[in-house]
């Protein structure tokens, strides 16, 4: 069993080979994604002829290289620059088969006109080749339509676009330009289709799908439409091209009423039954409530989502509730209690805790007092986000930087001469014009720092350009008698100004980075104390880097920590086997040394609160035994074994559920304490789970005045959320689309990002089995 105190003996060559394999696989998948989008008409033309190929090593079948293969001549090229490969191989005519794709096996039957591009009409102006098609050699240009000889039998009306005139016996020497121009091709196609039908009136339309295949296809399509809830409008079913697609596939059209009727009811009942069964089978659960203060696009309205976190790590969707705007703490308390009763029925003790976002914690405290077995928490994610507001409000540095940056941004944005001078240098230095993000006059920057952060980013991105602007003669002449211009100029040329802007910008970026990780990782409450310790360490480094006094910064962090702190953080940290530490005698003991005296008392009081009065003494004795004996070293090491996540490159616990399982199996002597541990260590510290898109919120809000409409909208939300949580997908479709577009923005940049995502060797070594170096909190 691997020890958690020292890194395992890993061969560096094997580690390097494993990283190279993952990088090649990821690079290949990125190329395939770009090619798939391009084939659908959303990318470069040359992907129709270039195909990504993963070359494997014959000896061990591991990926060796990623190449591009020409589908026309089977040549293989480097995949480092697809655009250059296309230019050299396809555009310059290097490919021997590009100009003769359709020369072989020319059919004598009429060619469908829809497969032929518009003919080239002769005039004195040269037309440039389309950007999304390869350039053909002059001998294979599309020719004008040939005149049909009336004495000959019916023949194809148009020759193959890549067939030379000399090789097509059906074309005469005379050429004809249709009187109606290019628009006549549509009528010509209809004429050809009519001739085909007359020649073979009983021709078979092609292979037909069986009834089972049609039913299966319609079922899958219906599932996709319902689970896409809000992203795909049901009105798309009436789109002519969508109907044409169904017809081409041999599928019948789907009425919208059919999806919103029996099919939706069936999917909802199926999802509801599955959710209830999983909740019923669990020994206990936590209710997560998210969205109490999220404003919808249509105004002061919000949709509150209720989810159920189960001990096995899964999350089940419960319901979406339309609140109609901001609500009081009392109303929130009533809604949460009603939800607990709906789920639990008569067995209220199955709900061991509630996690909720944003609104006043008074409702949670009241419920915790009323039901002593509950642990009710405020969302940890909101606590970290609030730190930005705290620093903006209480640290003078933020106010000074905001005021100075507003002066610079407003001056540059409102002075046309200065703006023109800025854009002149911007084009020279950074390519492109610039428009600063400036907070609106109505924006309260003390509460909402996002517009200020965008402005800081803009200023830092063109700091060098601004310094060139104030030295320009046109700037000096335009602002000679302007006192504000002189002040702005002195700010831009002041090195301390830029240091302070960078300091504030880096702090916000650091907090946002941590919140993104929290949102992605969804940590349990045992991780709360280590998270805050990690924050303190990063802020201390930030203070040292930018020469900022630590004392006022520590006070702000401590104030927010006290506001968010719950005694269950300390108890879960002590009872979670993941944080056991090895002492000099080889025992794995709970980290009581990391707690302050007040936090140790919190552990005792919480354990006593979560057990009955008769069991309190027994629980206290077992806690002392746990403190002195801990867990068997082999099982402790097994719980703490880590492995690298192939997606993020970070070290993660190999089996998160083992933390709970050891209390149920290996620690049978702690009968009373085990009840407390099993109720604590699986609780989440964040309320985020299923991300409800704005389109879904609009769907619910738009039907709030109709009982039937609201019921159907809520059913669609439930089915979509249930399906997404079943897949373990906690991401946002908008974020995925943004990532995909950024990948397609530059193919070469995308390939570089694939390799830049791989962590450095120092980062990997840092992640390996490190002890928790925490000071008393």
Could you please describe the fold and organization of this structure?
The protein has 777 residues and is of the alpha+beta class. Among the domains are: 220-376 and 693-731, no CATH class; 386-530, no CATH class; 566-686, no CATH class. Helices cover 51% and strands 8% of the residues. The protein is built from 29 helices and 14 strands. Strands 8-7-6-9-10 form a five-stranded mixed β-sheet. The chain has a three-stranded antiparallel β-sheet with strand order 1-2-3. Strand 9, helix 8 and strand 10 form a beta-alpha-beta unit. The longest helix has 31 residues, at 12-42. It is globular. The two termini are 32 Å apart. Pfam families: DUF7963. Residues 757-777 are annotated as: Disordered. InterPro entries: DUF7963, RNaseH-like_sf.
Can you summarize this structure?
It holds the Pfam family DUF7963. This protein has 777 residues and is α+β, with helices and mostly antiparallel strands.
């Amino acid at each position: 069993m691997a020890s958690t105190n020292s890194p395992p003996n890993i061969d560096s060559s094997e580690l390097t080979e494993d990283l190279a394999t993952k990088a090649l696989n990821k690079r290949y998948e990125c190329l395939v994604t770009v090619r798939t989008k391009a084939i659908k008409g959303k990318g470069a033309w040359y992907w129709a002829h270039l195909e990504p190929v993963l070359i494997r090593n014959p000896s061990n079948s591991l990926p060796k290289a990623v190449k591009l293969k020409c589908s026309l001549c089977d040549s293989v090229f480097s995949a480092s620059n697809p655009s250059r490969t296309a230019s050299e191989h396809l555009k310059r005519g290097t490919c021997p088969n590009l100009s003769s794709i359709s020369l072989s096996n020319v059919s004598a039957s009429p060619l469908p006109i829809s497969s032929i591009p518009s003919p080239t009409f002769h005039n004195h102006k040269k037309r440039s080749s389309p950007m999304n098609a390869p350039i053909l050699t002059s001998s294979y240009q599309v020719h004008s339509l040939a005149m049909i000889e009336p004495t000959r039998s019916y023949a194809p009306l148009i020759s193959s676009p890549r067939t030379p005139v000399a090789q097509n016996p059906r074309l005469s020497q005379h050429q004809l330009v249709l009187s109606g121009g290019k628009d006549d091709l549509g009528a010509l196609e209809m004429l050809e289709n009519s001739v085909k039908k007359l020649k073979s009136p009983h021709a078979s339309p092609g292979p037909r799908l069986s009834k089972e295949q049609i039913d299966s296809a319609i079922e899958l399509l219906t599932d996709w439409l319902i689970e896409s809830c809000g992203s795909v409008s049901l009105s798309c079913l009436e789109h002519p091209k969508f109907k044409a697609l169904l017809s081409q596939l041999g599928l019948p059209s789907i009425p919208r009423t059919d999806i919103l009727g029996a099919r939706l009811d069936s999917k909802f009942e199926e999802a509801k039954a599955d959710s209830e069964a999983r909740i019923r089978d669990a020994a206990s659960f936590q209710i997560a409530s998210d969205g109490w203060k999220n404003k919808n696009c249509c105004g002061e309205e919000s949709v509150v989502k209720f989810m159920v976190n189960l001990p096995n790590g899964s999350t089940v969707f419960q319901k979406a509730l339309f609140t109609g705007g901001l609500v009081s703490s009392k109303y929130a308390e009533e809604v949460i209690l009603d939800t607990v009763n709906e789920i639990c029925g008569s067995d209220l003790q199955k709900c061991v805790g509630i996690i909720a976002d944003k609104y006043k914690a008074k409702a949670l405290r009241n419920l915790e007092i009323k039901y002593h077995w509950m642990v009710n928490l405020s969302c940890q994610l909101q606590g970290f986000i609030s730190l930005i507001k705290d620093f903006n409000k209480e640290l003078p540095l933020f106010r000074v930087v905001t005021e100075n940056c507003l002066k610079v941004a407003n001056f540059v944005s409102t002075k046309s001469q200065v703006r023109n001078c800025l854009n002149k240098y911007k084009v020279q230095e950074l390519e492109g014009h610039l428009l600063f993000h400036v907070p609106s006059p109505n924006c309260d920057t003390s509460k909402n720092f996002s517009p200020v952060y965008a402005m800081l980013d803009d200023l830092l991105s063109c700091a060098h350009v601004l310094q060139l602007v104030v030295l320009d003669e046109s700037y000096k002449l335009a602002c000679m008698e302007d006192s504000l211009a002189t002040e702005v100029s002195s700010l831009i040329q002041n090195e301390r100004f830029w240091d302070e802007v960078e300091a504030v910008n880096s702090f916000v970026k650091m907090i946002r980075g941590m919140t993104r990780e929290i949102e992605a990782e969804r940590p349990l409450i045992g991780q709360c104390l280590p998270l805050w310790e990690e924050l303190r360490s990063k802020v201390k480094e930030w203070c040292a880097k930018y020469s900022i006094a630590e004392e006022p910064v520590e006070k702000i962090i401590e104030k927010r920590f006290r506001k968010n702190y719950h005694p269950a953080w300390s108890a879960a940290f002590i009872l979670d086997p993941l944080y056991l530490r090895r002492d000099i005698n080889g025992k794995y003991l709970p980290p009581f040394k990391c707690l302050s005296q007040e936090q140790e008392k919190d552990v005792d009081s919480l354990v006593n609160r979560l057990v009955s009065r008769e069991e309190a003494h027994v629980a206290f004795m077992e806690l002392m035994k746990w403190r002195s004996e801990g867990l068997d070293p082999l099982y402790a090491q097994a719980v703490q074994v880590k492995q690298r996540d192939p997606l993020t490159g970070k070290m993660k616990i190999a089996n998160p559920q083992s933390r709970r399982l050891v209390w149920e199996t290996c620690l049978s002597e702690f009968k009373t304490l085990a009840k407390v541990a099993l109720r604590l260590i699986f609780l989440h510290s964040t309320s985020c789970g299923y991300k409800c898109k704005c389109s879904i919120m609009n769907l619910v809000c738009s039907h709030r005045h109709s009982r039937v409409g609201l019921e159907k909208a809520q059913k669609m939300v439930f089915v979509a959320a249930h399906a997404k949580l079943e897949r373990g997908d906690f991401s946002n479709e908008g974020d995925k689309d943004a990532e995909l577009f950024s990948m397609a923005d530059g193919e070469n940049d995308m390939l570089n990002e694939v390799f830049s995502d791989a962590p450095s060797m120092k980062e990997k070594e840092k992640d390996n089995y490190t002890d928790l170096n925490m000071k008393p909190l």
